[in-house]
Amino acid sequence: MKILRAKEDVADIRYVFYSMQRIQFKPGEHKRHWISQYSKFKIPLPPLDIQKEIIEKIEVKQKAIEGAKQVIENLERERDDILTSHLGG
User: Fold this and answer.
1) What span, in angstroms and rounded, lies between the C-alpha atoms of 62 and 68?
2) What is the mean pLDDT, run by run of 10 residues, along the chain of 89 residues?
3) Burial track 36-71 (b if 16+ CB lie within 10 A, e otherwise)
């Protein structure tokens, strides 16, 4: 395991985290890499204020996704309850 630290005046660690989640591996390539292999990846770093705007947009979308998932779970539960109540248990 490697701990990443970002220079706060250059990179927001959340931006680096989200960027690293987007790294594409070659088909069939194992996702475990030595640290030396990770050092080959390049993450473009826009200015810090732009990074923060991007993070904010990502987090707004993530909250919307989580809310939508909750709505789906509630609807599925209600659907199942309807069927259960009509089948008698």
Assistant:
1) 10
2) 73 90 70 64 90 97 98 96 85
3) eeeeeeeeebeeeeebeebbeeeeeeeeeeeeeeee
Tell me if the pTM is above 0.70.
no
Q: How far is CA 77 from the centre of its chain?
A: 26
What gap in Å lies between CA 51 and CA 13, rounded to an integer? 10
Q: How far is CA 34 from CA 2, 20, 27, 74, 84, in A?
A: 10, 15, 18, 43, 52
For residue 51 the two structure tokens come to 């990074």
Amino acid identity for residue 26 in this structure = K
The candidate with the shortest Cα–Cα distance to 49, out of 81, 23, 15, is 15
